[in-house]
Amino acid sequence: MHKLTPKEQRFCEEYLSDFNGTAAAQRAGYSSKSYEALRQQASQLLTKPHIAMRLFELKAERSRRVGISQERVLQELARIAFSCIADVVDFDDAEVKLKEAPSPDVDYLGYMEWRDNMSCLAEFNKTSTEDKTSCKVKLHDKTKALTLLMKHLGMLNDFDMAISCLREKYGLSLTRDDDGMWQVIDLSRIQPH
Questions:
Q1: Can you tell me the distance from the alpha carbon of 117 to that of 104, in angstroms, rounded to the nearest whole number?
Q2: Would the pLDDT of 151 be above 90?
Q3: Does residue 144 belong to any structural domain of this protein?
Q4: CATH number, domain at 11?
Q5: Which structural domain, as residue segments, surrounds residue 134?
Q6: What is the domain count for the chain?
Q7: Is 19 left (phi over 0), alpha (psi -120 to 50) or beta?
Q8: Which terminus of the chain is more solvent-facing, meaning fewer CB atoms within 10 Å of its CB: N or C?
Q9: Could you tell me the CA-to-CA distances from 134 to 27, 84, 130, 138, 177 in Å, in that order?
Q10: Same domain, yes or no, for 110 and 162?
Q11: Model pTM greater than 0.70?
Q12: Residue 117: how many CB atoms within 10 A of its CB?
């Protein structure tokens, strides 16, 4: 395996801070007369096998160090995607309040479930005036979490490929109507303006 120069090693370390090749090259000491030339230099560095391998090693080391795995990320995405506001907030006639945590000494599994549910909470804000109290409760973005899970499972890719096939092979397209129902459109019948 080709040994990295000190500048290449520094580039790898800088790249992992923000995944911006151009900025990493500049911070690592690569100089260029223009932004475009620096961008090209960064692109060339990222395609070198020994640099790609070092980046892979550094990412793996960091993942081990902080305990991040694909499974853990997917579990968290699933927790957010399938969260329910009723698992986080109690709605009674008088007020809206966060669910109380069970004592971990008495009900450890209940406490762990409560903790997992609370991790889905993005915002809980109560505002009181003399005549009323308002409460804003917001969970993390379920749609985004579902989309990321679907991408990971290949569901969106298959769907996108099917739409492309309909368009290219049969001259058809899909669209959603106001009720959210899918409609097939024959593109050959649409007259250009």
A1: 15
A2: no
A3: no
A4: 1.10.10.1400
A5: 73-139
A6: 3
A7: left
A8: C
A9: 48, 20, 11, 13, 35
A10: no
A11: no
A12: 19
Token pair 């915002």: residue = 123
Residue 148 lies in a domain: no
Average pLDDT, the chain: 85
For 30-63, write each residue's pLDDT tens digit. Answer: 987 888 999 999 999 999 999 999 999 998 888 8
Q: Higher pLDDT residue, 158 or 181?
A: 181
Distance, in Å, from the CA atom of 122 to the CA atom of 140, rounded to the nearest integer, reads 5
What is the residue whose two structure tokens read 């000190």? 6
- Please report the pLDDT score of residue 191 as a whole number: 52
Taking a C-beta distance cutoff of 8 angstroms, is the pair 162, 172 a contact?
no
In angstroms, rounded to a whole number, what is the distance separating the alpha carbons of residues 50 and 1? Answer: 7
Locate 1 and state its tokens. Answer: 């395996």
In whole angstroms, give the CA distance from residue 76 to residue 84. 14
